[in-house]
Amino acid sequence: MSPNIRAILVCLLAYVCFDVMSVHVRLLSTRYSPQELSVYRNVFGVLPSVLLLAYTRELSFRWRDYRIDQWKLAFSRGLFVAVAQLLFYTALANLELATVSALGQTNAIFVVLLVIVFYGEKVGKWRWLAVIIGFIGAIWIVRPGTDVFTWTSVFPMGAAFCYAASMVTLRSFDRSISSAILYLYSATAAAVGAIVLASWTTDFSPIQSIVDAGLILSMSLFGGFGVVFLMYAFRNAPASVLAPFSYFGILTAFAFGWFIFGEFPVDKLFPGVILIIVSGLTILWRERVGKE
User: Under DSSP, is residue 183 helix (H, G, I), strand (E, B) or coil?
Assistant: First the structure.
C-alpha cells in the first residue's frame, strides 16, 4: 500500500472518529450541558496526546524536554480549541448532525481570511470568489431573517473560525517543534480553558450511571484519537491529496443522523452545502496550482 493511500485511509478513519464523537455528544446532551461535555472531552482527551508522545518516542518525565520558546502561542491555540468545542457541542445539542458538519466546512473559508490578517498573504480573485461562494452557501443553510433561523445555527461557523485560527497559527512555530509536543500543549490548554469556561457558565451535575461514564470516556477517546489520526495523515501525505476527503464527514454525519436519530435535513442542506463544497475545492485547486 502506498503512503498516500494509507494516509487517505487514516484520514477517513479520523473523520469517522469525529462523527462517532458527535453521536456521543448528541446522546449525552439530554443529561449534561455542552460545557460539561467539553470539559470531559478535553480532560480525557489529554490521554491520546500522551500516547502519541510514547509512539513518537518523545515521552519524558523531565519538564525541560517539553519546553518551547513559543509556549504562549501554543497555549493560545489550545484556548481557541476549547472555545471551538464549546460552540460545536452546543450546536450538536440543538441541530442535526449533517447540518453541523456542513457548516463546519466553512473552516477553509476562514483559513483564507485569517492568513490575510495574520500574515498579509495576497489572495487572488479565484480564492476571493471561493470565499464569497462559501459564505453564500452557509447563509443559505442558516437562513437568517426566516422563521427557521436560530442563533445556534451560527455556532458551527464560530467553531470553524476558532479551529481555523488554531490551524493558521501553526505557521508561526519553529519547524523543529514536533507535532506531538504541539498537540500536548494544545490538549492541555484546551482542558484548562474548558474548565474555566464551564466554571463561569454552568454547574456540574453528577454522572448518572456507569453507562454514561463509559460514553463520556468513549466520546473523549474518539475525539482525541481522531486528532491523532488526522495529524498522522497530514504528516504522511500532501494536504492537496487529503483535503477533498474532509467532505466525507458530511456523508457519514448525514448517515449517522438518519439511522440513529431519524434526521433527514435535505431541504435545509441543499443547495447551500453544494456551494460550501465548491468553495472549498476551489480554494484547494488554487493552493495546488500556486505550488506547481
Answer: helix
